[in-house]
Amino acid sequence: MFLPTIQPFPEVHGHRGCRGLRPENTLPAFREALRLGVDAVELDVVISADRQVVVSHEPWMSAAICRLPDGAPIAPAEAPQHNLYQLPYARIREYDCGRTRHPSFPQQQPTPAVKPLLREVVADLENLTRQLGRPPVKYSVEIKSEPAHDYLFQPPPAELLALVLAELRALQIMDRTTLLCFDKRVLQLAHQTAPDLPLCLLIEDEIPLAQHLAALGFRPAVVGPDFRLLTPAWAAELRAQAIRLVPWTVNEPADLRAVLAMHPWGITTDYPDRLLALRSAFLC
């Protein structure tokens, strides 16, 4: 069932937790996002050698933010060699991905952190939610998948999806989760195997929206474009099809205001504090 696509103020989705403020996709980032008051935490998942669902944007250790187990930096050319799909999770935990500030986010506060398991993130946030006495948080879970990565950096789509769905079901958060992906193969499989799970097609190119939807073969609950692609015509087309709009990654105040004028269902941002400040002003 498709619900209305406009609400008074969009949901605030913390991108990789709150990447502008804390190390991305780490427990400190998710905790801070929850304390700030996000409606949903957005995170990325990949698979380890022992088939664990690991929270990470890349299926390798990023040279920009991660360090070797001995604390040394990772050479950019060597980053893909630290392939999470070839490492057991116990080994993944030996790398630090929090002490090095991301060069694009000068306000980020570095702190020692590892790439956590999805189940670890959810358990931690569910506990913190109870401590804060706030409503249950939603989860936007992006499955990182590319056809060229099959068998090299990830299992094939059916196995990849099955591992993630099994974890979501075990954590009992299916009713609060939206599954995101750029890879239409994953979404098509999810549409067949988990028809009640809201799915979000992510878009980052200038191929027409209608062409993307035709290639997908069904109407997703959500479309998530790079906000720089967004136009009033885009927003109107999605509303006409009862598809929710959740653009990414909107960070600057002027961009946030411009996107707000197009009445999205949600906004994904590295700085949820900025969007929450706008919501506070809106509600006053």
Proportion of beta-strand residues: 5-15%
- What gyration radius follows from the Cα positions, in whole Å? 18 Å
Alpha carbon gap, first and last residue: 33 Å
The total domain count is: 1
Unreliable segments (pLDDT under 50, ≥5 consecutive)?
Answer: none
Beta-strand segment tally? 9
Instruction: Output the number of helix runs.
Output: 9
Main sheet record: 9 strands, mixed
Multimerization state: single chain
Give the ordered list of helices and strands. EHEEHHEHEHEHEHEHEH
Task: Supply the CATH architecture.
Answer: Alpha-Beta Barrel
CATH topology: TIM Barrel
Task: Explain what the structure shows.
It is built from 9 helices and 9 strands. The chain is of the alpha/beta class. The chain has a single domain, classed as Phosphatidylinositol (PI) phosphodiesterase (TIM Barrel, Alpha-Beta Barrel). Strand 5 (177-181), helix 5 (184-193) and strand 6 (199-203) form a beta-alpha-beta unit. Helix 4 (157-171) crosses helix 5. The longest helix is centred in the middle third of the chain and has 15 residues, at 118-132. InterPro entries: GP_PDE_dom, PLC-like_Pdiesterase_TIM-brl.
